[in-house]
Amino acid sequence: MAQLTPPTPPEPSSAKPLTVRCPSCGVMHAYRTDNPYRPFCSKGCKAIDLGAWASEAYRVEAKPNPEDAPD
Ligand SMILES: [Zn+2]
User: What's this model's pTM, rounded to 2 decimal places?
Assistant: First the structure.
């Protein structure tokens, strides 16, 4: 009658993975020091963020200057 269900042993959480939110897509992912795209979750997200940043910078830098025409 007594159904012995052994308690699940707690997992050793000494090395708890640190999860961070991807600044680009907002997904929670494990922060790994061997992830070349950190703090982004993937290469694509890093490219997106860099692309946005680059276009923003380009917009600021690219001022139309008629006096600077090479002609
Ligand atoms: Zn992402």
Answer: 0.50
